[in-house]
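Input:
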Amino acid sequence: MNTKTLAFIGGGNMASAMINGLIEDGTEPSHILVAEPDETRREQLAARFGVHTLSDNSEAAHQADVLILAVKPQALKTVAKGLSPALQQHTPLCLSIAAGIRHASLQAWLGQDVPVIRVMPNTPAMLGAGASGLYAPGNIDAAQREVAEHIMRATGIAVWLEDESLMDALTAVSGSGPAYFFRFMEAMETTAQELGLSEKTAHLLVLQTALGAARMAMESTAPLKELRSSVTSPGGTTEAALKVFTEGGLAQLVQQALTAARDRSIELSDSLGGDE
Ligand SMILES: NC(=O)C1=CN([C@@H]2O[C@H](COP(=O)(O)OP(=O)(O)OC[C@H]3O[C@@H](n4cnc5c(N)ncnc54)[C@H](OP(=O)(O)O)[C@@H]3O)[C@@H](O)[C@H]2O)C=CC1
Ligand SMILES: O=C(O)[C@@H]1CCC=N1
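Output:
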């Protein structure tokens, strides 16, 4: 259980997912602050989670042991530079969850003496089923790493990357990944209805099948290929479907899609980074 005061800067989708996961894991809502400019959103967050909300980012920083930067990458430079004076007076550990914003940029914007760790979570964090990547440079000590890892492990699994450039790949795989599975499930659901199943039945069957397949993959030591093979009877129905995927270039399409996400992360770094 987390006992530090965590302050989120930005109370949007990913912050809400993390807050939900942290509270489910036992973090007291009184240990969570959210700085968010939109009043309606502040009211929603307070009502849903019982967390303290405020509109002043610097005030949140003053009260924080750990500050989690959860605004869009496009807003981060202004937000980070705005926080910098407050961080010179009181210096919490800062975690940035923004896609593509490099550590050197964060360090320059927040202040050279501020401890900063990059984290890439994903939305299943809300259920404690998240997958997070973390990157910290050499000036971050073991105790600070432990704090960051402890927070992220409260929302799921956490892996450290030694090479910051791999954050772009990790973002493409697990950060964005839930959306790919939702898209695939959407397509299955639509087709199931076209093939005559009711909306409700199609939805239920697709979701339960996705859950069952993911659980089998998690709980089995067999490689994915073997699990696939165990469903695929020679000359049967699965083989007929998989043949269509192969002939349609599924593997290449997945490769292109993940590479596009990785490249977009690099583009964000190049276009939104910079040290001024
Ligand atoms: N969504 C996801 O699955 C994931 C997102 N991320 C990263 O998380 C970050 C947030 O993404 P997401 O939650 O999807 O985006 P959202 O737009 O849902 O959340 C961002 C929040 O920040 C608020 N905000 C805007 N300006 C400020 C400011 N000056 N000070 C404080 N808060 C501000 C926004 O308010 P308003 O709407 O009023 O502008 C909004 O509520 C991004 O950097 C993204 O790369 C990382 C992993 C996964
Ligand atoms: O789409 C995005 O840019 C963010 C980062 C990973 C998931 N959502």
